[in-house]
Amino acid sequence: MPLLARWEYDGGLWGVWKMSESAGELEAMLDDRSLFGPELDGVRSPKRRMEILGVRVLLKTLSGKECRVVHAPSGKPCLEGEERQVTISHTGGYVAVGLHDRLVPGIDIEQVGDRVRKVASRFVRADELPGAENMTDREYLLQLLLHWSAKETLYKVLDQEGVDFLGHLRIRPFTLSGEGEFPGESLFPTAGGVFPVRYFIHPDFVCTYCCRERR
Fold first, then answer.
1. Which of 70, 108, 144, 178 has the largest count of CB atoms under 10 Å?
2. Cβ 128 vs Cβ 173: under 8 Å
C-alpha cells in the first residue's frame, strides 16, 4: 500500500497517499460502495475519479473505517454523521487528508512545477518575500509554492466567504528548510490571528497544514 506518510500533529491525524494503483485497484480496497458510489458514478473525469477513490482509501487507512464525505454549502468537506473535522487536498497523483476530533484542520499539497511563477502576483504580497533577488531559482520556486499552499491551508481553516489571498492572508518571512514551521497571518476582519503553519518538501510536492479552534 503506498501510504507515503502518516503523522500526528496538534492532536490530529494526517496522511498522504501516492496513487500508484488503478481506479479499479483503489475501489477494490473499499468494502461499502454505497458510501462513495453515487458521487463516483456522476464523475466522468478519470483524474477526478482517482482523487475520490484515493481520498476514501486514505480515510479508511487513517481512521480504520470507511466514511461518507459530504460537502457543506461553502464546499467544505464533512464526514456524514460525525463530529470529526476533515480536510482534503490532492495534486499530481497524491491525495492528503487531515482529521481532528476537536480542532478545525487544514491541509494542502501543491505539485512542484513552474506554473506558480506565472500567477505569483495574484497571491504574494510585497512584504512576504524580502531578499527574493538573492535566492537561488530553486529556493524561490519552493518559496512561491509554500506561500500558495499555506494560503490555501489558511483559507480552509478560516472557512470564511470573501477571503482574499493578497488582502487578507500574509506569510511572515522564514528561512527555507526541508521541513519546519512559519507564521501565517489572517487579516480578515472577523477571523484575524496568527497560525503556526507546518510544512515539508517532497521531491514531487510541497505540503502545508495547521489547525485552529472551532468557533
1. 108
2. yes
